[in-house]
Each structure stands twice: as C-alpha cells, then as structure tokens.
Design a protein that fits this description.
Elements: H1 2-24, H2 31-44, H3 49-61, H4 69-84, E1 88-101, E2 105-111, E3 115-117, E4 119-121, E5 133-140, H5 143-147, E6 158-161, H6 172-177, H7 179-190, E7 195-199, E8 225-228, H8 230-241, E9 247-252, E10 255-269, E11 274-284, H9 294-312, E12 320-327, H10 335-343, E13 351-356, E14 364-370, H11 376-385, E15 392-393, H12 405-409, E16 414-419, H13 440-459
Parallel strand pairs: 5-6, 6-7, 7-8, 11-12, 11-13, 14-15
Antiparallel strand pairs: 1-10, 2-3, 2-9, 4-8, 5-9, 10-12, 14-16
This protein binds zinc ion.
Length: 475
Amino acid sequence: MLKQNYPLLVGLLLTLSTAAIAAEKPQNFTRADLAAASTLRERALVDSTAFALVESLTTEVGPRPAGSPGDKAGVVWALREMRRLGFANVRTLEAVVPHWERGEADFQVLSPFPQSMPSLALGGSVGTGNAGIEADGVMVKDLEALAALPPGAVKDKIVFFSNRMERTRDGSGYGKAVPVRAAGPSAAAALGAAAIVIRSISTSDSRFPHTGALRYTNAAPRIPALAISNPDADALVRQFESGKPVRVKLKSSSRDLPPMRSANVIGEIPGTDLANEIVILGAHLDSWDPGVGALDDGAGVAIMMGVAKLIHDLDARPRRTIRVVLFANEEFGTSGSQAYLAANEAEAARHVLGFEADFGAGPVWRLSSRVDPKQLPVVEQIFRALAPLKLARGDNEARGGADLEGLGKLGMPILSPDLDGTNYFDVHHTANDTLAQVDPQALRQSVAAFATAVWLGAQYSGSWERVTTDKPPRR
Ligand SMILES: [Zn+2]
C-alpha cells in the first residue's frame, strides 16, 4: 500500500511546491488569458481552417513564382480569403519583384557512360542558348574544394558540386549545404568555368531535382547553373570515379524578364488597450514553380491565417494587434519583406513580437525564442501552456525566418514554435511539393502551438523588451 501511495504523495508535494513557486512569480498572464490559451489549443487540434486554406491555395492558384500569373492570383486569393475569414484592415502593400522564367532544362552525360538526367535550372540562372554548352566536367565537393584547385583547373569546364546535404530536424543541414547553390555559379565563373551543375540541396532519394535562388556577383560572368537529384548525382560521382574523362552537355532556356509589381497581403485582428503594439505573424505567399508550394510556404500561410481566425473567433479580444503579413517574393531575394520594412521604417518599434512559419506543415516539436534574457521566465510560462503538445524547450537564439530577419535586426523579439524539418528537404523546392505532403493532423498541431503562443504573446501583462544582443541568431 505504502509503496503504491508513495508516487501520489511525491506528486502532491511537487504540486504544492510548484504552486508556491508560481505564487511568488509576477503575474504575466491573467487566469482568463491562460484559459483562453487552452481553449485555442483545444479548438485548433480539431479545426480544419488551415488545411482547407492550403488545399484551396494549391488547387485554385498553384505555383506562385515571383512575377508570374500565379503570383498575381495568389494576392487576389489572399485578399479574398482574409476578408472571408473576417480579418480587419485587409490590404496590399506593393512590392516590386524580379521576374525570371525557368524554361526547359536538359542535362546529358555524354561520356564515359551516356545518360540523361532530370535537371532544373537554379532560380535566376541565365540560359545557354539553343546550342547548349558541352564541355569536360570537373567534380569538386564544395566551394572550399573549388578554391583549392590549381589555377586553370576549371577553365572552360563544367563544374559539378557533389556535396550532399545532411538531414536534420532543425534545418541546420540546409544552412551548411546551400552556399554552393547561392555562390557556386559566380565562384566557378570567376575561375573561368563555362557552367555548373550541383547536387540538389535536398535529402530526397527521388529523382526530383531541387531548385532555389542563386546569387550572381558582378565580379564574374553569369554562367548557367542546373541542379540534378541525389540519385543522379550519385551516378555522376560514380562516372567521375571511373577515372575516365567525363564529358557533359547542358541546355537551358531560362531567361530574365522586366521586374513586375506584386504585393504583400496584410490583415489584422485589432487589439484593445494595447492596439498600437503589433504581434506580427509572417509567412510567404510566393513559391517556386516546379511544385505548387504546399509545404513552402502554403502551409505557413495556412498556419498563420488559421491562428488569426481562431483568435478572431474567441469571445475575448487580443490586447495587442495581431497582424498577419503574407510576404511577396521570399524565394528570390525577399523583396516583399524589404518593401514592408521600408514602408514601416518609422513604425518598426511598434512591432513588439514576431512569429514566422516558413518551414513546412509541422508538427511543431520545440519552442525557441529570441527575447531579452530577463523575459525568459515569460517564455517559460508560455512553454508551460504548450505542455499538452509535448514540445522540447529550445534556446534563445531563434531566427524566425527570412522575412522577419529585418525586423529582428531592429530588435524585435521572436517566439518560434519550431516546425519539424526532418523530412522537409525531401520535398522543398521540388515538383513534389504538393498537397499530398501536408499531414492534416500535423498541420492542426502546428496551428495549436502557434495559436497558444501568439495569443499569450499578445496578452502578456508586461511590455516586450527590445533585443539588444549583437550575437546573430542561429541559422
Ligand atoms: Zn519558404
């Protein structure tokens, strides 16, 4: 008997001591606010608003690359849906976006063992002209290996970057691998290369290649750049390892067109006594073109709109204004968030707390933050309100995402319910980024985590301090 009752007794003592500690703490949230947080969390777990939104966006609009007809249709869709959901102050904020057309890509290994491999141009790549480019191949692992080659080693050659991205839950593998995609073309061109081919920045074992933006510098000629999938990259590595000369040919009809007008789409749940303070919920409306942008970032759009809708439907009103911003053109230079920052320069400090969802459809597995260290106990209390979702507690070096980076640099605190990225890069920026990749239950759980944290962030009884550290956030 005694043995059986012992855990109960310890549990009771722990409860009493936890209650005693809690009583000493400043009251960061009212009892009603904490109760509303539970209500939101429970409603979110059975709510299908977010899934219906990503279904509608991917079905009715489809791919949304900057400057395309899909980009325009996405803006119209977002305005319509925000109004339908009952958001206030629904409006657009214009952003000028680059307009690049992918065209067709073709990649052939001519020797030693002829093979055709599916390929995609990297975003922004110049085309090759009709004749294509045929040259000897040079294989290097990454940018460091390229820089270590003897002078002239890649002159007039096609450079193949073979490095494989590592699978991680927090996406850190992407951050390590992606410099080849962004900087590889100009780095190789500066050494005289004619073109480059990269192993997709992807963890997939499918033959869907992965696209994404490159960044030409003005110091080197602009050379074409394609990506091939992991299995094809493996096959190409084996061809190089045969020791025989490798000759390849690539062709791409990519081209630049004049910049276009697009827009960020904004909607709000107005605050009450602290309405002047903004809790910003960011996601991006654009996508790459091979898929329909379900995970990147239709899911993020849906999560943020789903969160705002649940808060809108509460009996209570938020104290601070909750502003959903669906940014234009995150993928190809973040011109949407730059336009937002420029338009809100004088009001940057009114953005007191930021959330961003740009890492797939969940589930959320961790709560990270970037707040003034003095306010970590507030984050801790928000974390406790998330307890039924069984999250891990992350560090205080959260980044948010690319679209909130500018506001973050200006000192805006970030709360980051971290989406699980373990399988995200199997699909990200590929033709396989479709609705089939969105797990409705994981999406609901993500909405639950975000809704709880957003609500409590908007209700916090103190004021959110600016973040003053110079230490850059974790990538
Ligand atoms: Zn994205």
